[in-house]
Amino acid sequence: MNASVLKTLFSDAAYAALAPLFALGIGALAVLVAGLFPLGKVARAVLVLLTLLAAAALNVGMLLGDSVPGLVLDGTFVADRTTAMWGVIFTIGVGLAWLFSRHYYDEDASHQNEHDVLMLASALGMSLMAGARDLIVFFIGLELLSIPLYALAAFRRNRAKSVEAGLKYFLLGAFAAGFFLYGSALIYAVSGTLKLDVFADPASRAKILESPMALVGVAMLTGSLFFKISVFPFHLWVPDVYEGSPTPVTGLMATGTKAAAFAFLLNALLALPSSTSTSLAIIALITMALGNLGALVQQDVKRMLAYSGIAHAGVVLLGIAGAVAGDPKQGGAVQAALFYMAAYVATAGGAFGVLALLERDGERMTTLEGLKGLGQRRPYLAAALTVFMLSLAGIPATGGFLGKWMVFSVAVRAEMIPAAVVGVLLSVVALGYYLRVIIAMWMQEPGEDSPLASTRAIALPATLASAACVALVLVMGLAPRWFLDHM
Amino acid sequence: MLPPPSHAWLWWIPLLPLIGSALCGALHLATLSARKRDPQAKGLAGLAPLIACAAMAGALALAVKGFLDLRALDAAARVLNSPAWEWITVGDPRQPWFDVDLRLVLDPLSSTLGLVITGVGLLIHIYASGYMKGDAGYAKFFAYLNLFVFAMLMLVLSSSLLGVFVGWEGVGLCSYLLIGFWYEKGWPAEAAQKAFITNRVGDACFLIGSFLLLRLFGTLDMHEIVARMGSDFRLDAIDENVKLNIALAALFLFGGCCGKSAQMPLFTWLPDAMAGPTPVSALIHAATMVTSGIYLVVRLNPLFASSPAVMTLISGVGVATALIGGSTALVQRDIKKVLAYSTVSQLGYMFLGLGTGAFGAAVFHLVTHAFFKALLFLGAGSVIHGMHEEQDMHKMGGLRKHMPQTFATFLAGAAALSGLPLMSGFFSKDEILAHTFNSGGVYYAFWIVGVLTAAMTAYYTWRMVALTFFGPERFDHHHVHPHESPAVMTVPLMVLAVLSVLGGVLGLPPVFHAAHALNDWLAPVVAPGVAILNQLHPHEHLSHATEWVLLGLGAAVALAFAHTGFRTYAAGPEPDLAIGRGAPGVAAFLGDAWSIDSAYSRVVILPLRVFAFVVRFIVDQVVIDGLVNGAGSLAKNLALRARGMASGQLDAYALWMGGGAAVISLWWMWS
User: In which residue ranges of chain B is pLDDT below 70?
Assistant: First the structure.
């Protein structure tokens, strides 16, 4: 490789584009090394916090800056305002999971350092996924995200459920990764390249998609992404894994991972022929129906949120279907999905966080029975959970409402009216189970086997994180201008 | 188009109650923490009604200022516009693909509704400060009540449909909170849930309707939509497909109105909503929230007017609801249930009027109904208060001696509701029926049902008066000592009584040779819709002779049936028992609102339960688990099983994934 190639590869723009990733990578290594030294808990926590803040600041700088690096590294990675916004969302998601994980573990607390390294590494993977314009780069990001998550899911290694969740996630995740590689290989066989920009030109795109082999390849790629975002029929693992994993990790899976997979799926939209929109819409509706009906019968709130997460993935997929049906560049599907996921990260991240806090008080707390009378025992926590439930249900003045509104209007603009009507009706069903949580907390007296009033104070990091989530949900609902202006 | 946005003060109209709500909420939290230390502590909850009433008075003053400002303008220019809160802008700011500016617009329609909401609302707030005294959630109650007023004002002042929807959901949420206010009793919590979920069915229709409008017009601003209905969307300028889409949007929006305004088939939540405290029933479930549907139809009048089929449907649904509500009220024993079904019935009248294109008349009835129904509810609350929470009229009687002020004001409300001549309800109901008569065709049938319902209204109203205030005293004198309510409760009753009696001057019929003040006031708002209606099927005005006949008929029906109702029950509730013995089927059918609720139980709830059962036990446990397990055993033979796995389902999950990818691949290759 000669010097001029190296020069174009490692240009200033490339460094600028990769700066947030460098920050995360260096930070993760620093935290790992710091574990070797007898540093205090606080010092290590500061290191993690600094890493996340640095990554967030670099992304925000890109959002606010005059110019963006754009395509770098020979067209395999892109850094623009959209990826920077995704980067902010990822750091928020990981930051929330990390804050809620403080004081969560008891017997495994001695490994908190490794835990934090794994979380930072997964953030790095997410950013790589969001910016990838090349299938191999994306695959590296996917694995960089997934492998830490497998370990995190099994982090409570003395608990059978946690280990089972980790193993299940690993085996099925490896299976899905196989799909991805096989699909990439098929696309490479037809097109001779792994870069996504071959799909940008309509002529070359049409030529590639003429071949059934390429279509199968695209379908395989889509399937592996559907696994990550938990869309029918790739969603079956979700309830088991979500329930078994440590709750902060579940929050990370539900928010950050999903957001990263959506980020790439929106990029890969170009590769989806518009004839697939009907099938995508049908899959989206089936996903919404299964998620909502599944959530209706759950007694455990953590499992209920797992099913509700499936339904939410269906909603975003419906918006994507709308974008595929129309011209993907126009119509705002990217903004709608971005905003929806940003709101969902704050909402679901906060909800799982609150559950993580309650869980420490005893295992039964995350059932509906255990939540009874929470409004009296812990009014602020119950109020925060109420805000999250209202946002998940899509009640106005919350970010969840606006996201839903935008996604459904994308679908309506694409003339998918029956699908939008069914989607809106299904989201009415969803109100049933969100409302049950609110009713249990505020309108029902504690049952005989509900936990007694806890005297344990909530740790500062968790308090900050839940307050931040409430603030984010409300700000995104009431004054979403900043987010929308910077997408 | 809208005038320049120079009236920022409009924002203070909804903001004052919002601030009041926040302060009352803070007081409630403070009271709660004080009570943790000392269970008897009252804290500062006593301040809450002062704050809430002050906020209401401020909002009322601003609404009056707005009204006076509007009056000073030329009729065609009566629009005040606030600067926009640029809520959502997506895409390039110069050419956003989607943007919503929330702005408040005061025009004759929103000004009228605003005055009713703040005026009647203030009276009810004052009344509630006496009614709710001593309740553990005193401050919380006012926090909710003020929050409701905020949402209701947003609903009528917003120019964007999305802003309306925010208010629409907000009032639904507050209604839910207030119906379930005494949730410890159990059934209010269930009633609240029923109200919320039924309303959400309507809300889904509202959303779909708004999406359709957004797609048609590219905007959600209602003033712009109305303006464009008169320009590039004129009926002769659009093709059948667009007409169909407009009708569809109108239909869905009307579905939303059916939920919020308790029309067939979504009305069953309103009678249950009486589980809330009585001031809530008066404010939310009689005077304001339930009239949002009427407001929306009047606001978007050209949209509805351009689809005659939808207009006929609105009238039909309205008159059917009026009949069902009115006939059910005939046999209720619970005083609040009589008023609740009566409200359902009167709302039906308003929709009957809307469907004939009598937008002004519907708003007129909305206003007078707000006066007299709020009065009747508050009067009933005063009775319930004085009778130690007794609501069964069979256990009342003879209260006129014990509660003279409540009695006198209740009479005024009853006279107005039953449409006795020259009362406010007489004029507004007559105007709607006259319009119905004048529309001809199927509307003649609607008119007959309307007159029949008017007879029922007079009958059940005076039955209620007789059972409550006349006849022998049927309560247990040892335990119940009826007493007049304090002045803080009776003074609002007197104000409302005066309004109920004199409210008719807002809209005197043409035969009186006086100006119809309300119709003239609303003319600029309803002109586009009226123009479309005249274009579609021109109508002659009713001749004075016909109008005199109709007025006379209305007066005669009201007087005759009021008399019959009163005479039948003046001696006590025996006739009720006689009906129960003589025609138990009829009594049960009417008492149960034509068994519609139980029909829902059979047709909707039971299948849902069965469906849920099927999903839970058959689909989930047999089919899904069976598929999973079956696929699992299939996969067992195909692949090596991961040994030592806690669950055997993993291979089945993988099989589903592989199968899914295969199906998607094949699907895409063929499509």
Answer: 1, 41-43, 89-99, 601, 603-609, 611-648, 671
CA distance B230 to B526: 12
Tokens of A259: 């957001």
Provide the pLDDT for residue B453.
92
**pLDDT, position B634:** 52
Q: Residue A17: pLDDT above 90?
A: no
Phi, psi of A134 (to 5 degrees): -140, 140
| Backbone conformation region of residue A61, classed left if phi is above 0, alpha if psi is from -120 to 50, else beta | alpha
Calculate the average pLDDT of chain A.
84
Q: Report yes or no: B2 and B105 within 8 Å, Cβ to Cβ.
A: yes
Structural domain contains residue A324: yes
The reported pLDDT for the residue numbered B646 is 36
Residues of A in contact with B196 (CB under 8 A): 431, 435
Asked whether residue A383 is assigned to any structural domain, the reply reads yes
Tell me the torsion sign for CA atoms B556, B557, B563, B564: positive
| Amino acid making up residue A377 | R
Please report the pLDDT score of residue B94 as a whole number.
62
B669 to A428: CB separation less than 8 angstroms, yes or no: no
Angle at B223 (CA atoms; ends B219, B224), nearest 5 degrees = 40
Report the predicted TM-score, pTM, of the whole model to 2 decimal places. Answer: 0.69
User: Which of B653, B655, B671 should we substitute to test contact with A (largest number of A Cβ atoms within 10 Å)?
Assistant: B653
Number of H helices, E strands in chain B: 27, 4
Q: What is the ipTM of this complex?
A: 0.81
Which residues 147-166 in chain B show a CB within 8 A of chain A?
Answer: 162, 165-166
Chain B residues 465-504 with CB within 8 Å of chain A: none
Facing B180 at nearest CB: one of A279, A335, A443: A443
Kindly list the residues from chain A whose CB atom is less than 8 angstroms away from the CB atom of residue B667: 279
Q: What is the pLDDT of residue B647?
A: 47
Range with the lowest mean pLDDT among A104-118, A424-438, B59-73, B639-653?
A: B639-653
Question: Which residue among B87, B90, B211 sits closest to A332, beta carbon to beta carbon?
Answer: B90
Q: Residues of chain B with pLDDT > 90: what percent?
A: 18
Residue A62 lies in a domain: no
Residue B653 sits at the chain A interface (C-beta within 8 Å): yes
Taking CA atoms, B530 is separated from A190, A235, B360, B431, B470, in Å, by 64, 54, 10, 16, 47
**pLDDT tens profile B203-251:** 888 888 888 888 888 788 888 888 888 777 777 777 888 888 889 899 9
Q: What is the pLDDT of residues B5-30, one digit of tens each?
A: 778 888 889 999 999 998 888 888 88
Beta bridge partners of B100: B88
Closest CA to A373 of B29, A19, A381, B307: A381
Chain A with chain B: Cβ pairs closer than 8 A? 153
Owning domain of residue A295: 275-487
In whole angstroms, what is the distance from residue A146 CA to residue A199 CA? Answer: 27
Is the residue at A10 inside a domain? no
> Cβ neighbours of residue A147 under 8 Å, at least 6 residues apart?
none
Sheet strands (E) in A23-147:
70-72, 77-79
The total domain count for chain A is 1
Nearest CA to A465 out of A354, A327, A326, A342 is that of A354
- CA nearest to A256, candidates A146, A102, A401: A146
pLDDT, position B638: 45
